Amino acid sequence: MARQVKRGATRKPVRKEKKVIAWHYVARQGLVILAFVIVAASILYARQSHILPILHVTVEGEFNHVDKAVLVEAVKPYTRGSFLSIDVDKISDAGESLAWIKQVQVQRVWPDSLHLVVEEQVPVARWNKAAYVNDEGELFPESNKPFPVTLAILTGPKSSQLLMTKRYLNMNKVLQPHDLEIKELIMDQRRAWSMALNNGVKVILGRAESQQRFERFLRVYQQGLQRYQSQIVEMDMRYPNGLSVIWKPGLKPDFNGTV
After folding, report:
1. 202 pairs with which residues across the strands?
2. Which of 3, 49, 141, 226 is spaced 20 to 30 A from 97 at the CA atom?
3. CA distances from 159 to 55, 138, 165, 167, 196 (A)
């Protein structure tokens, strides 16, 4: 009898799982890309000068020393273009190039307008009797319109206007509570300081330790010399531990309360 031979077990073929494509995710990403393309194309289209052109320019501000028409002419070449392509920085620069214009802020107003907010220079002092300075030490030329004679005069070397303006404003702030104001502040070529006050007194501070000498002047003034201010011509603070006073002729006090 023939012997049966057992055959080995055969493996069943394994089915590979089909990859499931997340069509909702693909669709969402596609929509995002499409939206981006549409927006980019719209911006490029709108930046063309004939699309959304600037039709109106309005100007706001006080014009005391600058002709408004001159400002408009200065910025006009930079207002040609579309609402989105206009370079607002160039408009500001063109306006601020005029001597008495301190700042020009440019605002876009949808869909076809620009609004300019203009600030004129405000002088805080005269510079070398030939120009003015603002509170940031910026120089600008004299105006055809006169300014009050109460404006102080700063006299100093070339390019020292920023330093002198800061010094003037700081010193004047300290003096004003004592009914004193600087009428002229001088720094000579040696960088030595002196000042003329509204009470007619000249104060010499010198070159070294001028700030400490200024503070010492104020202390001495408060402690006794204030009562004699109308009789003083000049106070020299360049002494290490004191000062010298030049009195008006025939008015030297005896410091006992009598003149």
Report:
1. 196, 234
2. 49
3. 43, 10, 11, 14, 22
Distance, in Å, from the CA atom of 141 to the CA atom of 4, rounded to the nearest integer, reads 122
The residues spanned by each domain of the chain are 56-120, 125-247
Q: Cα–Cα distances in Å, from 252 out to 200, 230, 259? A: 16, 11, 7
- The residue that leads in pLDDT, 31 or 226, is 226
Q: Which residues contact 122 (CB under 8 A, 6 or more apart)?
A: 102, 134, 135
**What CA–CA distance (Å, rounded) separates 60 from 117?**
5
For the domain covering 56-120, report its CATH number.
3.10.20.310
Could you read off the pLDDT of 16-36 as tens digits, one per residue?
555 555 656 656 766 667 666
Cα 33 from Cα 36, distance rounded (Å): 5
Q: Write the class of the CATH domain 125-247.
A: alpha beta
Average model confidence (pLDDT) for the chain?
85
* H or E segment and range at residue 129: none
pLDDT band at 51 (very low <50, low <70, confident <90, very high): confident
Distance of CA 154 to the CA centre of its chain: 21
For 106-115, what is the mean pLDDT? 94
At 253 the pLDDT is: 72
Q: Please state the φ and ψ torsions of residue 10, each to the nearest 5 degrees.
A: -100, 140
Angle ∠(134,153,177) on CA atoms, nearest 5: 80
Q: What is the residue-wise DSSP string for 6-63?
A: PPPPPPPPPPPPPPPP-HHHHHHHHHHHHHHHHHHHHHHHHTSTTSSB--EEEEES--
CB count within 10 Å of CB 61 equals 17
Decide if 26 contacts 83 (C-beta within 8 A).
no
Q: What pTM does this model have?
A: 0.74
Residue written as token pair 């699309």: 51
